[in-house]
Design brief:
Blueprint: H1 7-16, H2 20-26, E1 37-47, E2 50-55, E3 61-63, E4 77-81
Parallel strand pairs: 1-4
Antiparallel strand pairs: 1-2, 2-3
Helix pairs in contact: 1-2
Zinc ion is lined by residues 38, 55, 57-58, 60, 71, 73-74, 76.
């Protein structure tokens, strides 16, 4: 498991401490969670104003809303969406 610490605090210790390795090692780790990322794939029009897409992270196919910033199924953050040409 990874530990996340403050870069600013670690640098301050490195520049000022006589035993920086020990002090950095003793720093408390922050309570963080890694963010899963995804993008929408195979975006397809299924009706008037209705779209479906597949989440690249969880592979679930669902109704697609272009403004979604997170997958409603797995919670992965949407980073980019592959562009596709549509005929309306
Ligand atoms: Zn998902």
């Amino acid at each position: 498991m990874r530990d996340y610490i403050s870069r600013e605090t670690a640098l301050k210790i490195i520049y000022t401490s006589t035993a920086p390795a020990l002090e950095v090692k003793a720093m408390p780790a922050a309570d963080v969670v890694e963010v899963a990322t995804t993008s929408w794939e195979d975006i397809e029009r299924i009706g008037f104003g209705s779209w479906e897409a597949t989440c690249k992270h969880c592979k679930r196919r669902m109704m697609y809303m272009a403004w979604w910033k997170y997958c409603p199924e797995c919670g992965a953050k949407v980073e980019e969406t592959r562009k596709k040409q549509y005929e309306i």
